[in-house]
Fold this protein.
Amino acid sequence: MTLWNSTLGSSFILVGILDGSGSPELLCATITALYMLALTSNGLLLLVTTVDVRLHVPMYLLLRQLSLIDLLFTSVVTPKAVMDFLLRDNTISFGGCALQLFLAMTLGGSEDLLLAFMAYDRYVAICHPLNYMIFMSPRVCWLMVITSWILASLSALGHTAYTMHFLFCMSREIRHLLCEVPPLLKLACADTSQYELMVYVTGVIFLLLPLSAIVTSYSLILFTVLHVPSNEGRKKALVTCSSHLTVVGMFYGGATFMYVLPSSFHSPKQDNIISVFYTIVTPALNPVIYSLRNKEVTGALRRVLGRHILPAHAIL
C-alpha cells in the first residue's frame, strides 16, 4: 500500500459537516451564530465572576473554569471550520492537526472531569449545606481545577503523540469536523486494534466514571429534594437538575459515542453530527443553562454593566 509522507511538511484535508450538508450556507450561518453566542455568554460570565467579589465562592470558581474551557474548546474548532467553508480551503497541516487534536482532547478531558466536580459541588451544597465550606473550601476547589487540567493534558499529550506517529495511507481526507483520534486511525495503514483498546480504556476513565459520579450526585440531590416540604423549592430544584442533566447528556453522550463505542458503530456522517454537539452546541448552551438564568449572576451582570455603561452615558 502506498504511503504519503506524514511529516511536518505534509497536510490533511478536513471534510467536515459543512461539505456534506444539503444546505451548507444555512448550516454555516447557524454554526456561526452558535459560536457568537458561546463567545458572548461565556465572555460575560467570565467577566462577571471575575469582577464581582460576591461571586468569589467555590461554585462560581468552577463555573468560571467551565466558561473558560468552553470558550477555548469551541474556538479551537469553529473558526477553522467556518473559514475553511468560506475560503473553500479545507487543508490543515500535519502540525496544525496535531495541535488541534491535543487542544481538543485537553479541553474536552478537562470539561469531562470538571462537570463531575461541579455535580459534587451541588450535591454538597444541597445535601450537606452546614459542611459546605469544609468539603468545598477554596483550596479543594483549586485542587479540583488543577487536577482536571493536569490529567487531561497528560492524556491528550500521550494520545496525540501516539496517534500522529502512525504512517497514513495515500488518502489525506479526514472525514470529520476536526482532527480527532477515531477518524485519524481510519487513515492509518498499521493495525490499530491494540491502540483502539487503549482509547476505549481512556474513554471509560474520562467519560463513564465522571458520568457515573454525576448521575450518583444528582440522584442523591433528587432524593433529598423530594423530601423538601416546599412545593416551590422542590419544583425549582427539579427544573434546575433536569436542565443540567440535559447539557451533561449532550456533552457526554456525544463524547462517549466517539471514544467508547467500537469503530464498527461509526460512520463519517454520524460522527460529524455528534461532534457538533460537544464542540459547538454545548459550549453555547452551558452558560445559559448553568449561570445566566441564575438570579445571583444576572444581578451581578447588571451591577457590572451598570458600573461601566452609566459613567459612559454621563460623559456623553
